[in-house]
Amino acid sequence: MLFWLRQQRPMTRFKSACFTLYRRQLAWLCLLVVGLLPRILSARTFSQQFERIKQVAPREQLYRLLYAMPKGGDIHQHFNLANLAESWFLLATDPKVTRNNVFYTRARPRDCPNLTALTPRFTTIQKSAYDALPPCQKDEYVALSALTAEERALFISGLKLDRDEEGRQEFFDAIGARIGDMGRDPNLAGAALVDNMRRFAAEGLRYMEVFVVGPRFIDIYGQPVPIERGVQILRERLVSPDAVATGLTVRFLATVVRHHPDAEIEIERAYDLVSKHRDLFVGVNLAGREEDGRGHALRFIDVFRRMRTRYSAIPLSLHAGESEAPGTQVRDTLLLGANRIGHGANLLSDTGTLLLMRGNRYLIETSLLSNQLLKYVPDIKVHPFPEFLRIGIPICLNTDDRGAWDSNMTDEFFAAVTNFNLSWEEIVTIGRNSLNHSFAEPPVRERLLKEYDAALKRFELQFIGDDWSEKLRHVSVIKSGYARRKLGITD
Ligand SMILES: [Zn+2]
Q: Rounded to the nearest whole angstrom, what is the distance from the C-alpha of residue 233 to the centroid of ligand 1?
């Protein structure tokens, strides 16, 4: 008997414990169901929530939401032209950044002999070039730190298309010269790149693909920095603590200006550069004004074919169809072997190529603001972007030369959402496209996609509830000049 009791007592205790635990679990489950019942009954997808927000949110709130939203990558932006004007000024007058270099701008033009009429006001040069000027021209230039408040405002404005009458001519003929030697100084250009990384990361971007010509840096004596040294400088800059802290991954495309007489030689150099630095330079790009007929696509068919006999799997993102006139530039550029098309704004005029692009793998890198401000489309409302998106051409949004537009990535999404009523699924498709079609190494691309998906989940969870507008109050937003001027986002 005693033996029996000894055997049973532990069993009874065990059964009792099991039952208690079972009851507790049930009780917890009941409490959980009761607590969540209102949420379960009113459950909505984030897609539905986004439609609701679009209907009721004032523009400022929608802007705030789109600013906070995870955005994938910006895979079409130009080194130097992507940097904000205010940042150029602050960094170029900071001795910790410029390390003894000094920058002068042509703030006070005079009628000097030998003056080339092509030098726009606020062209910027470094001290070595300033020291070599004859006295009359020297008087035209003022150190950036010595500009009057009025001149400083004009200098900053001169780096942007911030007036309606400004457009293509101002952009192509003046802004590059105004950035001038600031973009050739490796310390300053590197600091501006990291400044951009920080700003884009704050907007929820995870990746940037930046188009670099050269890199063509000069030292403080005005002597060219060898390309390999330039690459090393960029590489070191990207692993510096302030760059790493942004959490943003950056890759470069070796870029060639298409209408230059020696563009074919530059393409060969670009391939060589990518082949030597595949972990940092991930593809080749052709940029420059397409309406300048000297750089037409078919001019380069031989050189690209020759490069493919020499190098394995170097992808191409080529500007094409950045034009308001009908044309076959996109088709001709696909013949060059392009994996991605920059802009493709006139693709609708070439119906055969349009059909070829449907459901295919060639992505179009769109920049709505760039095409609007350079007047390749008369108005964003008639941009072909929604047609491309909704007939199944892979597409993503990019900032291109946002320094000149005084814009950010949120502006691109805001323009797309408000003009074309983008659904949440379309926004996510655009974000995923920007990473899926990036030229980053496959493991990096997969990591970025995972991070993007995880960030999306967190974002959806944050703003799915009825308190979304309250939560938006806590989002700090840096509004762009474009948003203030063109999108009516003022408060
Ligand atoms: Zn571009």
A: 24
Helices (H), 57-147: 59-68, 85-92, 95-98, 127-131, 135-140
Give the CA-trace dihedral at 48, 486, 177, 107, to 10 degrees.
-140
**Dist. CA 320 → ligand 1 center (Å):** 10
Summarize pLDDT for 231-253 with one digit per residue, the tens: 999 999 999 999 999 999 999 99
List strand residue ranges (DSSP E) for 230-339, in order: 249-257, 281-287, 316-320
52 Cα–ligand 1 center, Å: 35
Determine contact, residues 52/424, Cβ cutoff 8 Å.
no
Question: How far away, in angstroms, is 226 Cα from ligand 1 center?
Answer: 25
Q: How far is the CA of 484 from the centre of ligand 1 (A)?
A: 23
pTM for the full predicted model: 0.90
- Per residue in 83-113, pLDDT tens? 999 999 999 999 999 998 999 999 999 888 7
User: What is the architecture, at CATH level 2, of domain 72-83+203-406+429-452?
Assistant: Alpha-Beta Barrel (3.20)
Spans of all domains in the chain: 72-83+203-406+429-452, 102-172
